[in-house]
Design goal:
The structure holds two protein chains of two kinds.
Chain A lengths: L5 H8 L25 H24 L9 H23 L1 H7 L10 H9 L6 H31 L1 E2 L2 E2 L24 H18 L7
Helix pairs in contact in A: 1-6, 2-3, 2-5, 2-6, 3-4, 6-7
Chain B lengths: L1 H13 L10 H6 L4 H30 L20 H23 L1 H7 L3 H5 L2 H12 L5 H29 L11 H16 L3 H13 L1 H26 L3
Helix pairs in contact in B: 1-8, 3-4, 3-7, 3-8, 4-5, 4-7, 7-8, 10-11
The chains are: A mainly alpha, B mainly alpha.
Chain lengths: ~210, ~240
Amino acid sequence: MGLLSKKDAKLITDPLADNNPITIQVLGICSALAITAELKASLVMGIAVLFVLGIGNVVISLIRNIIPSKIRIIVQLIVVASLVIIVDQVLKAFAYELSKTLSVFVGLIITNCIIMGRFEAFALGNGTWRAFLDGVGNALGYAVILLVVGFFRELLGSGTLFGIPVLGDPIEKTGLYSIGYENNGFMLMPPMALIIVGLIIWVQRSRNKALIED
Amino acid sequence: MIEHIELFFKSIFIDNMVFAVFLGMCSYLAVSKKVSTAVGLGAAVIFVLAITVPLNWLLDQYLLQPGALSWLGEEFADYDLGFLSFIMFIATIATMVQLVEIIVEKFSPSLYNSLGIFLPLIAVNCAILGGSLFMQSREIETFGLAVNYGISSGIGWFLAILAIASIREKIRYSNVPGPLRGLGITFIVTGLMGIGFLSFGGMLTGEDEAPEEASQVNETVKIENLEPVIEEEKEIVTITKSEN
């Protein structure tokens, strides 16, 4: 990492684990969990948030000294909404099926608490380059959790990864299915996403005792 | 009348904002430590949803939908401003929240004291924007239904946060494993409540099929209206399921 000083590198690596936006800061759960039934949708959602948060943080950090603090929420919302419209239009043009699957959750990136949270907590008080790194780091931390949840839900729920069957064919009983394995359709139900995130939190906090709440 | 009752129960139980689509989870998790604050936030959400959903319905009908501008004249009939809906909706919500805050502060200081601190939180609550976006994607048909949808999905959210706040107040006396304490157990309890709410899923679809054979004219109209809504709602869940 010759390009980044040690302090800057921490901005990217911290949100990946010990300061993860979902499991530690509890931000951005709203639009995250409903779409993690497939890995592909999770990946696209992660990329969309990476785009919006990276660029949004830069924009807010650039104009931070000229925003009157009373109307900053509305200014922030307008910046996010414009970026999200770009994402939505691109998705509709190049991945129509996927944008149907994500349905209203693309629009809900606007009110994703990660974005407003990072604007408020970081971009308003830091320089452009650091704000960009912070945005990228937090979006990556968010994407990691989405991918982990998506991985387990798709693997256990439909026996596929990215839509490719990895456990054999459930109808012709090949692979794992030949010895009596069944897909757990329950994993595709929305509540299971919550339970998986709960388990991730459990694992993470057992490994790092400092994070335990009392 | 029947579709009002149907929409009312559907938005509270079957499409519950929290348990079925995870909207407003951030404030749901952050403000549910005490029942009294949870009630305050829940009431504010009902209030704001009841105002913004019908307002955005009007915007959608007369400004944003394909062909919505035809009241301006022939040449505007094929305009489609749909891509502006995110920015219009969020702008309405942010302004309305600000307005409501000013009005409540002026006319009812006691209500302001209990709601006041939550109102800024609400502008960025996903449940509010989600209410408007679902209203748009489910193609709610009349203004009355939009009002109904706003109020009833607000009530659904209120019930959810009330329930989790009561559980969290009690759970403090239980011996939860260290790493699960606080956030972890709240996630898992919410998941379990969500599974419970799944059982409401069959409620309306089961009833729809029986009267269809009995009285045909009325029912077929109703079912035509209902079916796209149901499909829409289950789309997210079943899209991978169908591959099995």
